[in-house]
């Protein structure tokens, strides 16, 4: 494991972009009651994962009332609303990313979100100029989080070994993926959620703690 970040891969949702509360609300109030009205699907079964990969797992375990196409349509529609109208940026994120770049640390965005959603965030907040690379689950010829492929690709894009790279994640699936890739992993609890992040190497409760861990 790297003693200090040579390079850093950042998750987007729940870390840089504050969207998880909106996702939780829409999933609890609309999506999950629609797709499985007779079951209580936990948010942990979905959070942090590429939504286009989740349906077969849910269909194997729960009584789904919609087909895969409708399931994915509901998520795509919710994403456009959340990122276009409700999501905000983590306080101080522009300064944090700029200071990491000034310290000579290459950065990659590594997210389960599709490019349609990343593009909306970019249009609203101008995030991507901070990054040397951006990797969506759509760019990876392999499984999404919790498998390590997206983080292996992020390290490759930055020209470093995964073991020399750090990752910042808020979800169980994402942190599992980063650790499986061999990355020193920082768990972020900026939303206060009690997600299982027991596998991470560092834990940040807010933006100030995250900054201290990454920049010292």
Given the helix and strand composition, which structural class is it? Answer: alpha/beta
**What percent of residues are in strands?**
5-15%
Average predicted local confidence, pLDDT: 94
Question: How is the main sheet built?
Answer: 6 strands, parallel
- Rounded to an integer in angstroms, the radius of gyration calculated over CA atoms is 17 Å
In one word, what is the shape? globular
Reading the helices and strands in chain order gives EEHHHEHEHEHEHEEH
Number of helices: 8
Taking pLDDT < 50 over at least 5 consecutive residues as the criterion, the unreliable ranges are: none
Straight-line distance between termini: 17 Å
Helix content: 40-55%
Number of strands: 8
Strand order across the biggest sheet? 5-4-1-6-7-8
Overview of the structural elements:
By secondary structure, the chain is of the alpha/beta class. The strands form 2 sheets. Strands 5-4-1-6-7-8 form a 6-stranded parallel sheet, sandwiched between helices. The radius of gyration is 17 Å and the shape is globular. It starts with 6 loop residues before the first strand and ends with a helix. The relative contact order is 0.19. The mean pLDDT is 94.
